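Run log // design_07
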């Protein structure tokens, strides 16, 4: 790459500076310190909108933050107008938009991260207007950005097929386990067991009201496992208490209400203990662009049962047990094997410990930097 006096990268960091930091925001917090360390002569500017949130990059000399103030949110003008204008004013060389969308106004080179096209494959309940908006946003990012980052070869193929593009401008990176994850202590495990009333060996799952997460079938499969004289509990995190009634009714209908434990949205600090204390993670999703919970389970030395569809076989390889997510019998069979077979659990722990070493933030940072530098070279 031709040398410049200084490289400045701008980042749309609204998912970092927000009330509840979730997937994309957490990943940026893990990714950018590695990128900054690998390129100490570069500068990184985190653009954000809302004030009052801790700066996870504080103390990193070449990462700064800048608030772009704007009253109101009509027409998404913060992203479409104020962000690109601020980036150009700050002489940013490249803008990274990490959450599917990018500005309509393109004044400098832009790299967009499109994680998947789930909104176009599954109805999230927003109706036709929501679908059309998602399609428009993703199409804009895919066709107008200088390069696209995505999280699996499956996602690359899926969006290439859907939008009928050849995919040569789509680059695959992989995420890595949450850096805050660690093997929980016995005391921490006992603490969450006591808090949530977990008093038997249990399976852990991330539930959701989104049908894509397959929570109804998981509960039914658990009931079927219990009918085969396999005792235990199913612990579900990810469904708010005020939206759990329909799932509780499902458990009652199958006679397992006493052994299905709803944690609401368990705090991030409790997830390692919930994973480490489980006999296994059940991840029977109907569609994923990556499948980060499987990698997190491996980092916690927890066996996992996963769907045999979309990105999950690519991401997990032979380090998990697979099921057909559309078959209650298949899910129940996998649950039974994990709950009853120590040999299977030991094998999955061993293979998971090897597989998770493939996923590091340093590797991800190098992939991202390679794409950054290719785009910068074109525009130098």
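design_07 sequence
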């Amino acid at each position: 790459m031709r040398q410049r006096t200084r490289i400045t990268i701008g980042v749309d960091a609204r998912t970092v500076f927000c009330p509840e930091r979730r997937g994309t925001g957490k990943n940026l917090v893990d990714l950018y310190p590695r990128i900054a360390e690998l390129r100490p002569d570069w500068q990184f500017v985190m653009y954000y909108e809302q004030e009052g949130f801790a700066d996870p990059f504080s103390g990193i000399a070449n990462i700064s933050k800048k608030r772009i103030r704007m009253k109101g949110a009509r027409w998404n003008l913060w992203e479409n107008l104020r962000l690109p204008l601020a980036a150009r004013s700050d002489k940013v060389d490249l803008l990274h938009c990490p959450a599917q969308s990018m500005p309509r106004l393109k004044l400098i080179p832009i790299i967009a991260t499109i994680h998947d096209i789930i909104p176009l494959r599954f109805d999230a309940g927003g109706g036709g207007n929501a679908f059309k908006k998602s399609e428009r946003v993703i199409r804009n990012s895919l066709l107008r950005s200088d390069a696209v980052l995505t999280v699996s070869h499956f996602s690359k193929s899926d969006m290439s097929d859907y939008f009928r593009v050849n995919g040569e401008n789509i680059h695959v990176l992989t995420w890595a386990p949450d850096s805050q994850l660690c093997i929980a202590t016995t005391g921490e495990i006992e603490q969450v067991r006591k808090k949530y009333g977990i008093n038997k060996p249990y399976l852990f799952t991330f539930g959701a009201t989104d049908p894509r997460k397959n929570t109804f079938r998981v509960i039914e499969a658990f009931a079927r496992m219990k009918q085969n004289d396999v005792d235990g509990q199913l612990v579900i995190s990810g469904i708010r208490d005020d939206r759990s009634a329909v799932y509780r009714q499902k458990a009652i209908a199958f006679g397992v209400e006493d052994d299905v434990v709803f944690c609401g949205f368990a705090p991030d600090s409790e997830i390692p203990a919930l994973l480490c204390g489980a006999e296994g993670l059940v991840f029977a999703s109907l569609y994923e662009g990556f499948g980060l919970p499987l990698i997190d389970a491996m980092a916690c030395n927890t066996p996992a049962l996963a769907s045999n569809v979309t990105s999950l076989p690519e991401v997990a390889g032979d380090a998990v047990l697979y099921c057909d997510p559309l078959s209650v019998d298949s899910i129940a069979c996998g649950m039974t094997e994990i709950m009853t077979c120590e040999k299977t659990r030991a094998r999955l722990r061993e293979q998971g410990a090897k597989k998770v070493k493939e996923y590091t933030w340093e590797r991800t940072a190098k992939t991202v930097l390679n794409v950054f530098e290719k785009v910068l070279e074109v525009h130098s």
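The chain has two domains: 8-176+360-378, 186-358.
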